[in-house]
Predict the structure.
Amino acid sequence: MQDVPAPYGGESPLFSIIIPLEHHRGQWELSWLGWTSQTADKSLYEIILVVPPDFKALNELKALAGGKARLEFTNSDHDIGLCAFGATKARGKYLFFTESHCRPEPDVMEATRVPTGRGSPVSRCRSAITGCPWRRPPCTRPTSSSA
């Protein structure tokens, strides 16, 4: 984790969402729109798009990302290498790895941030990311009595 302040002057975020932009038939745009449409407070997370050397839509990516994500460039062209590189650039306390063809539900970051007795977040996903071949069965959201 890089312990540096956010570029907009805030504190380091709780989560770093790392998206490796490996070849997924141009589906990264839908994934990107899902991550930028989250209902959670934007200060809770940062988005890191990790770009391989042969990424074809670089101008489109730069225009779409604007100031809403960090672009990190690496020589790796495999998703594991891209994720590892992104992790070295992350500022968040927790790392959230996804794939560029997965589209998150708009409340996935809210669902992930469930306080425990000590106030730390506990991941309780409810299959909040769609379009992934490894989609897990839904988890139940905790009720106020189980949180």
Notes: The longest helix spans residues 79-89.
